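Kindly inspect this one:
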Amino acid sequence: MVAELVLVGGGRMGSALLEGVLASGRMAASSVVVIEPDAERRALLRIAHDELVLLDSPELEHIGPETSAIVAVKPEIAESATRLIGALGVRRILSVVAGIASARLEATLSAPIPVIRAMPNTPALVGAGVTVISGGSHVTKEDLDWAEDLLSSVGKVLRLPERHLDAVTGVSGSGPAYIFLVAEAMIEAGVTAGLPREVAVTLATETILGAGRMMVESGHSPEELRAQVTSPGGTTAAAIRSLEARAVRSAFLEAVMAASERSKSLGR
């Protein structure tokens, strides 16, 4: 069987993309080959999708002139994985590996195969991700259109020049962890203030969900929304004053910059 898509790496992000693509109906499970060395992960994927072809290493018989590949592995093995799948003659490669520039992946290839670089985030697991894509040296508009269509199955997709990808990593790639940390803090504060933990969890998580929807759907900026809920001399004003006194805004700026710099260092 010649595959329409080869997924190299069946971990959390690779599996999230796979689930989104299959759920969207963009392709059938029987047209996808997953390369995953870990037997336990392969077994889990087999339970979820019986028609998938699951292998511990790629095989030439599954690669044709129209086969595309997604590389979703750890940064330290991204180049070797790209070299291996590229040598089999795939049409294009979409990399969702953090920090590794398309030029580095292109350098592993013996032929001018298009390499698209993407930075998704973990809300892709629930179809609410945001992904930024950039094209390498040999990428055409058709390649970017293909990548956007594929990745839109797990959320919103933006296109930017690759020089912005490290900053994207700092804001949205690592961003969910910042929000989870805020949720943890709000929950602990609620418990400290006397709420039952399960109530504090519901209040914190639903508040974050609702605030996110307001930012997306209301048409107002975050600054405008914050001002609307901050009455002069009120409870929210007291809370914001406390946060600003502890330089929370500056802490977030430094966090984004730290993540961006780490992304750059991965690519060196």
Observations:
- Residues 175-266 form a domain with the ProC C-terminal domain-like fold fold (CATH 1.10.3730.10).
- The first strand starts at residue 5 and ends at 8.
- The two ends are 38 Å apart (CA to CA).
